[in-house]
Specification:
11 helices, homodimer, inorganic pyrophosphatase (n-terminal core), Diaminopimelate Epimerase, Chain A, domain 1, 6-stranded mixed sheet, 6-stranded parallel sheet, alpha/beta
Chain lengths: 317, 317
């Protein structure tokens, strides 16, 4: 596999790299890290995120290159951090299969011609740290900053239940290559806009809790009242999952298109990806999501029923 | 130095280990880690913290051994994570100099007979990870859990400006020796009650912002609605002061006794302690507080007027 990928990337002259809608730290870090490694090796590169780059990642090298659609011909298509083609949005409609998919989601559908999928990796960016040199590319100072952003994002600052000694060592290597850990941590995980904090306030005020199951909602009205400009949860899920005595956290985000974005987080030993999958979504055992058609009220009801039946008689320790 | 320490600890039969008042993660982790390493090598051990062990550290191995004073004779005295003797409180009064001091504060006064002080280390616990084996002791699973607690505490989860690649690698080693990073992180740095989160929600929903000045209120009613049992802010001020584009944060907490507890936080170069002082309170340039008699409404008004006049024409960058 490594040899095939190396050959593919060596041949490539003009590459489009794409990641997922509502991009998070790992989507962005992997996209920019992969893109800059190719660029610094003399390739032409397009970096595509359908939803564009959230402002707080502006400081990253290569951020100014991100575009919302494919704008020019390319000979090689790479998709990073996506378990299926739908996760990229509509930017790849009519483009055929990606030449290479690099991902760490265990639900990955292997939708590329070559698929490098490592479910044990804490982040797609962590895979790239190890594999870019194997595939013939340098992890320089700029690439290192992007990839550390990805690892910090998906491990929420080295604290998710899948954290490994290897992930810490990879981060140490990236620091030595010049990535400024405290600065990246501050900018991507800590710094919050006033609108985000107000929006969190609405979600936190509405918390419900029952036998280890915590859930809350973010409505369209909450978003308007808080003047929060995005259609996501502003990472509220991470704060919620830090609550004590939690087995599962579910967050419902009402969308303007008649759907509800649902995010699950779970304690060790509880696999929420199976529920997400039933609702047409995906993810990992400990962190999963789905976009579900229906009113907020109805989606809350059916999702809570399913989630409670997954928990069964399980009790908080 | 290592040889002298090794000889000292080899001779020791009964050891008292002491750390500082108002103990934090590194004081506790270093105390327990050092103590358990000695205990597991067959020594008698007393572990002493004048203020006892905060409840959230209860889960750590050896936590049940912590006592608030010296209770029995000992032949060897070790002080960890203290820059001077005063930091231990009064537990060592009349005991003479410690035989060994292990610390990472650059202000350390070298008040022991032997002093192992490494100001570059991110935590005293990080020194012990490297030195315990050199001094003849094993970093077993229990010791590893304690020492990782110390590192996480002093680096606030690997994010302080002094973070080093070495600190990440040390943490990786501790994970491999059996320390459960996600669990320790959760218990010592994150764990928030549902009531705290709901209470935060009310404060965040009410955020006001004007030209770099952010303020919000927590009313008695908020406290009741959230079922929050304390009369403080549940550390909400720390979250507020992580907001972007902030010069000063002011938090007003309505009290049952007709007072309002006011907390200020400020960006570098703005001294809020002078305002706090005018209202009968005190603190530091960047963090100050006062208890002010009056209705919430009135206190908000007079405090904001004073605070705005301190800011004058200052603008957010």
């Amino acid at each position: 596999m490594d040899q095939q990928i190396r050959a593919l990337l060596s041949r490539a002259e003009s590459v489009a790299v794409v990641s997922h809608i509502r991009p998070d730290g790992d989507a962005i870090g992997s996209l920019l890290g992969m893109g800059l490694a190719l660029l610094h090796a003399g390739k032409k590169v397009q970096l595509v995120l359908q939803d564009g780059l959230p402002q707080k990642y502006d400081f990253l090298p290569g951020s100014e290159m991100v575009q919302r659609s494919i704008k020019a011909p390319f000979d090689t298509l790479i998709v990073v951090d996506c378990s299926d083609l739908e996760r990229t949005g509509v930017v790849l409609q009519g483009q055929g299969s990606p030449d290479l998919v690099v991902d760490h989601h265990k639900t990955n559908l292997a939708f590329g011609r070559l698929n490098y999928v490592e479910p044990q990796a804490v982040a797609t960016a962590a895979i790239l740290v190890e594999k870019l040199p194997v595939w013939g590319f340098e992890v320089d100072r700029e690439v290192a900053a992007c990839l550390l952003t990805g690892i910090l994002g998906d491990t929420i600052g080295f604290r998710t239940s899948n954290m490994s000694p290897q992930a810490l060592r990879i981060a140490a290597d990236l620091m030595e290559r010049g990535a400024d850990l405290p600065m990246i941590y501050q900018k991507t995980l800590l710094s919050r806009s006033i609108a985000e904090l107000r929006y969190w306030g609405r979600g936190l005020t509405n918390i419900n809790y029952e036998d280890g199951l915590l859930w809350t909602t973010l409505t369209l009205d909450d978003r308007i009242k808080a003047a929060y400009p995005e259609n996501d949860d502003a990472d509220l899920i991470n704060l919620l999952s830090s609550a004590s005595d939690i087995l599962v956290v579910v967050l419902f985000i009402e969308q303007a298109d008649g759907k509800v974005k649902v995010s699950w987080r779970s304690a060790e030993g509880i696999d929420v990806s199976q529920i997400a999958f039933e609702f047409g979504g995906g993810g990992h055992a400990a962190a999963a999501g789905a976009d579900i058609i229906g009113s907020l009220e109805n989606v809350v009801e059916i999702v809570l029923t399913k989630t409670k039946s997954l928990l069964g008689d399980r009790k908080v320790n």
